[in-house]
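Hi P.,

Sorry for the delay on this. The queue was packed all week, but I finally got your sequence through. Input first:
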Amino acid sequence: MPKRILVVEDEENIRHTLRYNLIKEGFLVSEARTGPEALAEARRVRPDLILLDLMLPELNGSEVCRILRQEMTTPILMLTAKGAEVDKVIGLQIGADDYVTKPFSLRELLARITALLRRVDLASREVKRGKEVEVVGNFRMDRGARTVHVDGEEVRLAPKEFDLLSFLLAHAGKVQSREFLIQQVWGSNFYGDRKTVDVHVRWLREKFERFEALSFRITTVFGVGYRLDRLDQPAIAAEA
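Then the structure:
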């Protein structure tokens, strides 16, 4: 069944170009020009992926992303004319899964879209094959519902934060290199650098630091990467 992509872009020429090329690649396409239109259309069609311009009239892309992330886990790829690192970090922090800076090549954009959709499909199949609900002491992860609770309190995670924590938990006690985490969580077509892992680990630690008796910790293995330690289990050697 064809995947549906919601294109949110106020510049008509760019929007039409994206629509034409996405349809050509076999996607179904919905469109929105403003922030409020984007929210309404996303809620109506429940797309498989959202292309979201950062600079929108009436309600900017950052605010749209923040609102949508509270309502759905649909992957969001942000389009921005800004090159400043702070804009990229903010986009990722509020829930975007990836970003492309204008001007961008259609080939790169299509590769990123394909990679995001592939990761969602793989994650969905992994949930069906693996353990859907995992409990470690006072920590509970529901991979099907994509929720995390500590002592009964929900901890809201951005999509990539959840995916990273889920992968580390599934391989608890094993050291994972940054490069391997990039490949497994972000995908082979990810164009960012390994610092992306460090940023997401920092955000995870910040979100869990208020819990005094957390039943796991994410340990930095200097020169290698990271390891999630269940406090009731010993760590084991890293894979070659």
